[in-house]
Amino acid sequence: MNVHSSKYKCTECGKCFRSNNSLGIHRHIHFGEKPFECSVCSKRFTGAGNLVTHSRIHSGEKPYKCHMCDKAFSESGSLNTHVRVHTGDKPYKCSLCDKRFSQYGHLQLHKRQVHSNRRPYHCPYCGKLFKTERDLKCHVRIHTGAKPYSCRHCSQRFTWLDQLKTHLLKSHNEGTWFTCHICQKKFSLSCNLKTHVRRHEGVKSYVCSECPKHFFTSSELKSHLPVHLDYKQFCCYFCGKWYRYKCAVKKHFKKCSAVHGFSVM
Predict the structure, then answer these.
(1) CB neighbours of 9 closer than 8 A, spacing ≥ 6?
(2) How many domains does the chain have?
(3) Tens digits of per-residue pLDDT, 189-239?
(4) Is-contact 57 51, C-beta < 8 A?
(5) Does 183 have pLDDT greater than 90?
(6) Can you list the pairs that 236-239 forms with residues at least 24 positions away whose Cβ atoms lie under 8 Å?
(7) 4: pLDDT confidence band, cut at 50, 70 and 90?
(8) Domain harbouring 7, CATH code
(9) CA distances from residue 64 to 17, 32, 51, 110 in whole angstroms, order as listed
(10) Beta-bridge partner residues of 65
C-alpha cells in the first residue's frame, strides 16, 4: 500500500496513516505528549507499544526466541540483529570503504572513528586529540603507566588486552592462537590476523577521500590524511599551539613543558 495516498495525513510532517487512531498516536511525537505511564517506575511513553516493550524490563519477559540457539529477546528488532551473528549477514555497507556491518550503529561508529576528522577528546599530557573517550583513556595509560589487565594465574599486569592474551597463551597455554594460513605466523587477536592477511592478499580497504591512495589499515589512512588537509590534530597542553604531525608537537612539548616546570615521560 502507498502510505502517501492514505486518508489521514499529519499536518506537521506530511506522513499518512490508515486510521485516525494511528494518526493520533503519531501526533504525540510532535507535541511531546507521553500519555502512557509505566506502573512500576512511572516512566512515560508516546505510544502503548513503547510501554509494552519497556514493561518487559521489569517482568523479564523475552518472547522473541532465536531458532538457532537458546537466546531470547524482549524486542523483535534485537532478535533480528542477533540472528545476523548466525547468518553472517552484514547489510550496512560503508560508503567510504569496503567494510560492512551487521548493525547500523556499528556503521555509524566506524564512520566517526575511521573517516571523520572530528576529535573532541584532548590528552592532558601531550595534547593529542581523539575521536572517542575510550581511545583517550587507552592512550593516557602510556603517560600514567596504568596496567588494568591482570593475569589470574600469576602476579603480572599489562597495559593492553592483547598483551594479556599473548601472555596467557605463551605462559599458561590458555586461549587460542590465530594462525595465518599463508605464512603460519601466530596472533593472539583475530583482528590482528585479519590485518596481516590483508597484507598478503594486497587488500587495501581504506580509501583516501582526497586522492586515489588505498591503505591496509585505518591508522595508515589517518597518518596519510594530514598531507591533504589543513588539519592539526596535535595540541600543546601548556601553550595551546597546534601541530599537524606528532613528531613536531613532541619536540615542542619537551621544551614547553620544561619552561612550565614539568618533565615529560
Answers:
(1) 15, 16, 17, 23
(2) 2
(3) 888 888 899 899 998 888 776 678 888 888 888 777 777 665 566 777 677
(4) no
(5) yes
(6) 236/127, 237/122, 237/123, 237/124, 237/125, 237/126, 237/127, 238/262
(7) very low
(8) 3.30.160.60
(9) 27, 30, 17, 29
(10) 72
How far is Cα 22 from Cα 7, in angstroms, rounded to an integer?
11
Residues 48 and 80 in one domain: no
Distance (Å, rounded) from C-alpha 32 to C-alpha 47? 11
54-63, 113-122, 165-174, 180-189 — which is least confidently predicted?
Answer: 113-122
Answer whether residue 171 is part of any domain: no
Which residues, in sequence order, are bridge partners of residue 44?
37
Structural domain of 105 = 64-115
| Domain assignment of residue 121, yes or no | no
Query: Is the CA virtual torsion 201, 207, 213, 216 positive or negative?
Result: negative
Strand partners, 101: 92
Residue 31 C-alpha cell reads as 507535541
| Cα-Cα-Cα-Cα dihedral sign, residues 42, 43, 45, 48 | negative
Q: Is the model's pLDDT at 260 over the cut of 80?
A: no
Distance of alpha carbon 99 from alpha carbon 241, whole angstroms: 36
Q: Domain boundary at 42, 59, 76, which?
A: 59
List, in sequence order, every residue forming a beta bridge with 8; answer none if it has no partner. 17
Contact 194, 203 (CB under 8 A): no
One domain for residues 96 and 70: yes
Q: What per-residue confidence (pLDDT) applies to 246?
A: 72
SS3 of residue 193 by DSSP? helix
